[in-house]
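Q: Give me the 3D complex with glutathione.
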Amino acid sequence: MSGLVLTLYDAARCPYCARVRIVLAEKGIGYEPQEIDLSDRPAWLYAKNPSGRVPVLEEGGGFLLPESVVIMEYLDERYPEPAMWPADPAERALGRLWLERFDARLGHEYYALRRGEPSRLDERLRDLDEALDAQPFLSGPQYGLADAGYVPWILRARANLGVDLEPYPALSTWLERLMERPAVAAELELTAAHSR
Ligand SMILES: N[C@@H](CCC(=O)N[C@@H](CS)C(=O)NCC(=O)O)C(=O)O
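A: Here is the predicted complex, encoded as structure tokens.
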């Protein structure tokens, strides 16, 4: 295990940061969060990540990593216990596909609704519900990075956009299962505190 100090340039209300916070918590990795005001981002953030976006992970010694999916996978390799990808290569590949296709499978319609534009979020939630009716977690029988990669938006859809999950029973049960995990339950509290 790396003994280097980790800093996470973070924003409590950011779902991409939430992905990373969940993985850090699941693995019990100590880190120093540095909250970024997204409405008044410091100029130095651009030196850490030219896009100025969070999350950014910094490891003592100057190693900088932006992009939530890249950070999640890095942490899973750097801190292998508990593993957050399935051991089976096919399940792992399908889990990666969930993350790769996140925008098409959830993100685009979530953000359309958030902007007050026409949105087919209901269709995306129905698709998720169908997938989770067939298996307990997105990448198969075990909880993992794919679930951590989607749950921040499901929490925010419910808390901030008023989306009712009752019509999606498998998705609701998945959320209940995830909520039993302290790493995810902590995000529920944070989402509630930052709901707008
Ligand atoms: N692809 C990036 C997206 C990160 C992202 O969009 N973060 C938002 C906050 S939730 C941000 O920093 N927005 C500032 C901006 O867009 O300028 C990732 O997965 O980390």
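A quick observation: The longest strand covers residues 6-10.
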